[in-house]
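agent> Task received from the user: take the single chain below, predict its 3D structure, and emit structure tokens. No templates, no multimer pairing.
agent> Plan: (1) validate residues, (2) run structure prediction, (3) serialize to tokens, (4) report one or two observations.
agent> Step 1 OK, no nonstandard residues flagged.
tool_call: predict_structure(input=
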Amino acid sequence: MKMDSSLRPKTTLDQSAAAPSSFTGSQQGSKKLSNEIIVGFDHDTELIRDKLVEDQRRLDIVSIVGMGGIGKTTLATKVFNDGYVKHHFHVRVWVNVSQTYDKRGVLIQILESIRAQLDLEKTNDSRLRELVHRHLFGKRYLIVIDDIWHKQTWDKLKVFFPHDNSGSRILLTSRLYEVAKHANSDGLIHHLGYLNKEKSWELLCEKVFHGKDCPEWSIKPGMQIVENCQGLPLAVVVIAGVLAKEAQSENFWVEIAKRTCSYIVGDQNGCLETLALSYNHLPLHLRECFLYLGGFPEDYMFQVQKLIWLWVAEGFVQKAGDRSLEDIAESYMMDLIDRNLVMVADRKKSDGAARTCKVHDLVRELCLKKAKEEQFILQIERYKLSSNVITPPYTPYRMFIEKDTNDLSFTHSPSKSLRSFLCFTFLSVDIAKCFYSFVLLRVLDLHKCELNDFSKGMELLVHLRYLAIWKESEGFPTSICNLWNLQTLIYISKHRCIDLPGNISDLVNLRHLRTHHPYNKRTKTSFLLRSIEKPMNLQSISGIVLGDGVDNFQKCFPCIKELTYTTYRRKRNEFKSLTYLEKLKVTCYGGIHITFPTSLKTLTLEKCFLPWSDMSVIQSLPNLQVLKLKEDAFKGSCWNTNEQDFPQLTFLRLEKLDIEVWEAYSGSFPRLRQLEIICRNLKEIPLEIGDIPTLQLIKIWNGNHSIGQSVRRIQEEQSDFGNYDLKIDVKRFFW
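)
tool_result: status=success, residues=735
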């Protein structure tokens, strides 16, 4: 504990020492995220869009070129999501490349974007390339290749894409003009320029004041700040994050204007110095969370939930009042997003909270620079290793490994101070033999390292709070049950059913227990719990199957908040007593009777074969926000809501149901924002659905001709009433 304290960053005059207890109001409770504010790209968007959709049959390459932080990805995103572009192209794919090219990773990104069914374990690179070609051939596709650095990378990528004169396009973003010219010397190479002073000021005001009038005193120092940012959007939004989080005062704005004046934003070092102002004004409790992001690979897509668990395990999150550590960590994440240091990549359908996020590569460079200065992390890819001994420039505290290092060894004394070991690649070294060196380890993430067995050294890792492992052989390692400090366990296995030992309840601090397949996330894996010795304090568990020796969830997991349950028996399933349960997914193989708690916010049902009359039970849930009815969740060709309403429902998905007729009323879903339907037999969507005032989007997949017509009628009727905000997304019709 003394060592932990000594390694924490010290407070300086530039640091804000705000305590977590200062999190009040919107910082605690606000999960909703406003749409990304984009300023100054209207002309650029129109120019690139027109080039992409022009009447030219042959494959064409369009490029966006500019320095880091200029807004290349933002512009490409705006074009990618443009309504006309969506309508024009049959297939749209986004691929992140960055400095390190990974052929297999790119192929998988493409196939996942077009929802191809994959068994990665049995699919080699040649087969992946064949699948990409087959899924793209004959279709008018748009491929965005973001952040490409090398000519050789383009030469390797271009062979994946068919030239079949279907009017397809490829949009590149790069910092390097020569890369864009190499890709297509005759094509459009759009040099993205800096924002002018007026647009920079508009962006700053939008980010700081959110559409409200700016105070008179802020104009003079504010104009100086945007002038110092020299038209670089990333610098503007990050400085705006500093201004928005501090108390509004003229003196503070003048001080920021003076500090930014000394930096030359036009080069990378100057930009990093400008971004560092935001870091210097981070409260201490956010610094470690922010620096931690720098250890992950470039363009890494963070799952917010997993990142929160890591922060909690690392000890970054400080207890405040009666709130859970996870809730406090989520407010930390929201604060970093509000400061424009973290970008939201995907959002939850229910409340708009961040599901996945990423950091700009320049922000990541800042993380790494500061982490090195403060001896916070060690990134193995960036330091040379001598034979069998790590010789880093400082004592490693948290170790992140991006590439396999054959000579990696942990026999050297600095390994005794390791607190975290996160690996993002396969390791040729037998890492299990190194457990004896991980005495004080808190975080061990080996989700990419396939382990055949565990040594007895696992039992020594009693300080572990977070463990992610991929185990090839059958049988759950009983030695894990001795790790009594464990908070999060992610168990990756090819086996569909993992038998949990009865003494799993010895993990008295375990809060999250998850499992998934190593290659295909759609392949379901489950934990089988035959017996349990005592109740557990779990908050979330995935894929649990109860054996004959366990009769109800209340006795096993009285505090559960998130539960994924599979059953193969016809029996009553009583969830009503789980008063903390907020998210439930039930997969049944046979008709059953289910009861639900009133605390439920998200419900997913599959293979339950319930009669539509049972829907009244779900409609009565006062807090339900998300409802997903998947394959055979209900049986019957007609669903009539009977004018009963879902008072809080914001998202509804109907998937692979045998429903043909749906009778509903606008009052049935007073708060519905998004409707998704994947049902081939459904003939039409009730016109009354279009009258829901909150409805923003209707998505249809694999529908028939009549449902497509009904959706268009809804859109036309709403347009006649002046409602142009309702969006319709129709894909892959079966006529």
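agent> Step 4: summary for the user.
The longest helix spans residues 705-720.
agent> Done.
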